[in-house]
Amino acid sequence: MTRARNRELLALIPVALLLTAGFAAVFAQENSKLANLSVTYGLYFLAICVATHIYLRVRLPNADPYLFPLMAVLTAFGLVMLYRIDESLARDQANWFVFGLILFALTIQFLRDYDVLERYRYIIATVGILLLLAPRLPGIGEQVNGAYLGVKIGPISFQPAEFGKLAIVIFLASYLRENREVLIVGARRVLGVTLPPLKHFGPMLVVWGASMFLLVFIRDLGSSLMFFAAFLALLYVATGRFSFVVIGTILFLAGAWFIVTTVPHVHERVEIWLHPYAEAEGSGYQILQSMFAQADGGIFGKGFGQALIHVPGHPSQTMLPAAETDTIYPLIVNEVGLFGACGLIATYLLITARGFKIALLARDGFSKLLATGLTAVFAVQVFVIIGGVTRVIPLTGVTLPFVSYGGSSIVANFVLLALLLLVSDRARREVESEPADRGRDEPLGAAA
Amino acid sequence: MNRQIVKLFGFIIVLFALLVGFTAWWSVFDAKELKASKWNHRPLFEQQQIPRGRILADNGTVIAKSSSKGAGATLRYERHYPLGKLFGHPIGYSFMEYGQSQFEKFHNEELTGEESEFGTILDELTGQKQEGEQIVTSLDPHAQEVAMHGLENAGFGAVVAIEPSTGAVKVMASNPGYNPNKIPDKLSKWNLEEVRAPLLNRAVQAQAPPGSTFKVVTAAAGLESGVITPDSTINAPGVITDEGHELHNDGDQDFGEIPLDTALTNSVNTWFAQLGQKIGQKRLFAMMEKFGFNAKPPIDIPEDEVLESGLLDLETGKMLTRKDPVDLARVAIGQERLAVTPLQDAMVAAAVANHGKLMKPQIWSRVVNRDGSVTKRMQPSVYSEPIKPKTAEELTTAMEGVVDEGTGTNAAIPGVPVAGKTGTAETPGNKACGGGSEENQGWFMGFAPANHPKIAIAATVECTTQFGNDVAAPIFREVAEALLGGE
What we know:
The complex is a heterodimer. Chain A is mainly alpha-helical. In chain A, 69% of the residues lie in helices and 6% in strands. In chain A, helix 8 (198-218) runs antiparallel to helix 9 and helix 9 runs antiparallel to helix 14 (365-389). In chain B, the strands form seven sheets. A six-stranded mixed β-sheet of chain B has the order 3-2-1-6-17-18, with no helix packed on it. In chain B, strands 8-7-22-21-20 form a five-stranded antiparallel β-sheet. Chain B starts with a helix and ends with a helix. The chains are: A mainly alpha, B alpha+beta.
């Protein structure tokens, strides 16, 4: 029973080593400050991780052993990158990391019986939608680069979409658990295409409408894409009807196309994506610089602390706008190269694999859909931001989970992690209590 | 539902593979293009951390060097030009914030030591700091000084001197010049000075009608095509009518039946106008192209900082071809819409001097690495062979007459035979002239010694009321003397 936790503990060791080595590299770059400080930081981080580990040992002994170390790796990596950009950012982020872990522990403590979420699903959905719309509310909304992404109440500002995504996924998982049978049985074939029953087409349209609404009012292509993709993923997994996905995609593309052509801010984002050189010193600056930074990295990168973030000798002139948030990925490519970037993407892929593995093991419909939804929204978020800075899709302001600077992001993602571990613990417990010997841990990443 | 979950995971793998693919594209496969983008300042900034190689004159005088500033992460190298204004053209400048130009830009890879990709990777692995190589040029500081001094006394203009047998550029001067050390303070101001345009290298970027110096090209086409021999005569009255306009000799002088050398010596317009018509547009254009017209000159200055020479269509800004309608008689005497750079004029002189072979003009001479050994040497190469040695000899004879007893006597050097040709082009509307009556552009191109050419030179002075012999020929003489002086 504690085998899973022992693996977790072992997996944390490379994390601490990575963090220590990373800080050491940055220190060495900043001239002889090396000393013991980097080791101290590494030890602090390890101590916090071990404390979390002990907590998990007590509360969720059966939960997936790799998820926490994988996320710790990302956090450690993020901290090193932020430290390298600006020491104070790393200190903030470290505080958020601790705060995120507290919320992580509280979630595990009080949501052990997470079925309770199902009971409040409409409240949760309402809260989720309110969170998404909050940035447009007068007085507290904050506009950043033309998109409404932040909320500011007094001294605290946060990105409600990060929490909104959790609420929406919980609602969708619960809603689809209840209605999946009807959606499958009631479906009929029209002109060779399987359509969902008319009665249940309504809620789908509502989700579609919400995504379009987000696009128009929040003006954020990224969040909109993230939610709708998570919805389609859940719909597909719940019903097994690929045609629903196709219909949904067509709806989304049609709506998005209409909005792109009519809403100037969204239109501009798409224009920059297609023709970044047209306004090379203006609106296209960020995406061009992020491409240049990647080109500068090459296969192996220039090493920690070696990339140019500011014009040398002019700290106020940025060469990579929003290096700590939107464009942290290009900075990573710049410093650790294609090699390091592949490692980073592989880490995200492993997390996704473990998430889906949890969904596969889960017994009841809600748990399966919840784990699927949380994993899918996480993976899509990674795709949206990395895809944005590599010009696969238009660049939008979502964070790179656990790596980008941002309290909301790190805290929300730790709650996401807590929910996944809760599902995992129950699933594995149920599997282990069965006579058949199916519950052994499979090698890392063998989920699919 | 499990099957769908597995498929969904498969889809996510595809998405992530897409991310890896795009990252690989930007960071590796397309990296070279991205690094070359003019919007990308990173390579330039990084190069500031590399000690950039020195640029030396042919006698070892330092033209450009780098000195370090700061230490550690803030260490950077700054460019200094000990000779100041003297080699602002054609060496150009290289500054982190202000970019690069001319020779500095063209030879950036050698100067930053980046020319061998493999060497760079090796250096990275061994921790060896990248270091630039130094370049020795063929430029002659003394002659350059003489040229600059001569131009500064005469007016806006340029001088180009080429060694005919190798194409080595000995002098490239452009007035007004600029002091590259002051680029950080003055770049934006200089960029706004459209008329004075100190940053414009007039030797390669200023086009003007070459006037009578072009008669050498017309004569070359006539001899080479067999339309004339040195003994053929053409009747040259004081005035002829060409396409409804009158075309005059200087002072409407009637020369009667005269051969080539008389016509060239006295720069007889009506003679060359008729010759041009006899040669025809196709053959004249073909000869021009062999001399390097209608193409970017093959010199080591970036392509976007040099201009082609030829017949310029002012409306489209493009060069006319042999099929476009032109007033051939006026082309033959160097007027019409001819737009020629001093470098092109010098290339014509150099080709005649080198027995008809045009060598590629090059400023660099050799690249020397950090250990002091030569890694690359300029190999003189033939650009074209516009005329046969015999034709070159006949042209040389005629051009000697110009200096001995014709319109170019001010180019004569005591004890040294000089071959050359003057030119006085009408350049109405040249903004640089300030709208006054000084709307001539004086030219002189030629080579010396005529019997054994060591140097070919073109000199031009804008905005003058005088003739090429008065303003350009003396500069030619002084520069030629400076270059031959060591003999």
